[in-house]
Amino acid sequence: EEAVFLRKKITLLRAFSLLIGSMVGSGIFISPKGVLKNSGSVGFSLVVWFTCGLLSMFGALCYAELGTRITKSGGHYIYILETLGPLPSFLFLWAEFFAIRPANSAVVSLAFGRYMLEPFFAPCAAPVPAVKLVSLLGYYMVLTLNSWSVTWSARLQTALSVIKLLALALIIVPGMMLLAQGHTENFQDAFDRQSLVLDKLPLAFYAGMFAYSGWFQTSFVREELVRPERNIPLAVIVSVITVIVGYMLTNVSYYTVLGMQDVLASPAVAVSFVQRAFKSLISVVPVLVALSCFGTMNGGIFTFSRTLFVASREGQWPPLFSMIHIRRHTPLPAVMLMFPLVTAMVCIGDIYHLMNFFSFSRWLFIGLATLGLIVHRHRHPELRSPFKVPLFVPVSFTIICLFTVAMSFYSDPLNISIGCTMVLSGFPVYYLIIHKQMSNFLWNKLFFLFLPLSDYLTHKLQLLLEVVQQEIKTY
């Protein structure tokens, strides 16, 4: 009875909540250990945290300008497609689907499961099978909600963003109180150069940037934003500044209460902090952290489904995934597609290996997207963007991203090589299936028998899922 398309339901408050909810998640409760381990000292780890925040601001400003120049949803994918061409955009999509996004979702899900169960098993560690089971249950709950309603997903994100900030406040306040009372012993010799290993610094930055990751989320849902030219830059600037201040105070609080060795020894830093700072809330804070991770899962599914939706619309993904549920107005096939890979990675994965595994590919393509901004400016000087950043911002951010990616081969060659192989494996797929000349030859000469079967399956899945193509152009 009404047109089927994705409605503009994301207001400024919901955009702010999406960014806060995506950034403040498992990272600040997992990454302090990874940053400290690879930076070598308390002082250098705080420098890494601040530098990562500054880099995130640079990247967020670049994406804010891209979001006002390019009016389609899709985030990294559509920016690379529109500025650098179809091959690098497909390589990103390939790596994002098979490596980056499922590994990222698995990390956040495992953190959710660990913190949810920690109060029930303290002081012992929660059993690994139980953690993985709870992690999957949490992920499936978010998947179901995103399939059901855009409005309710956005409302949940707003509510969980408030809970995330409350969780940070419960960590920051007691730490600042102890610091004010003169407990500065854990900051003596904060910049101990003997423990600094330069070739490990890229891994420290990966861990820190993982905690800040999420500043690009509004770019994935650009077509569903109300007044995007105004709300994207405003939401990005306010949210990133809020998170930088919160993260710096949280880390200072961790080190004030726990100290360097306790942070390195803790499997769940926030739980160890509560055990030391105030035992009366020992069962409360881990649940708040788990809910924080739950919000990050929700934001990740909400945004990545739009990447698959746009890629399908652009002809680089099967057509079924550009379809929308006729009553719910959600991209149901794109939302549902990720759960097998995430399930597999949760079952077999380890948090820190997964983090290094997907970070290489993620920062490579983010660097390419900001490089694309420079290219787009050069090609289209006539475009008057409502939001424009100084040229040194995308130039410096791109150089740092690509340099960090190159350095990481020395830091963790095994996981980085796996990530690199995953990206390169997209080349033959692109030229055999996506590239026009080669794909036409193959389909016409070799695979023509499978075309009727493909159309038949797409039609049956349409009927089963009750989905159709978008009927109104929203960009």
UniProtKB/TrEMBL annotation:
The membrane topology term of the UniProt record is: Multi-pass membrane protein
Cellular compartment(s): Membrane
Q: Name one GO cellular component term.
A: membrane
What residue intervals traverse the membrane? 12-30, 42-64, 76-100, 120-142, 162-183, 203-221, 233-257, 277-297, 332-354, 360-377, 389-410, 416-434
Domain of life, per UniProt, equals Eukaryota
- Per its UniProt record, what Pfam families does this chain match? AA_permease_2
GO MF terms, alphabetically ordered:
L-amino acid transmembrane transporter activity
> What name goes with this protein?
XCT protein
Q: Which organism is it from?
A: Anhinga anhinga
Please name the taxonomic classification of the source. Answer: Eukaryota, Metazoa, Chordata, Craniata, Vertebrata
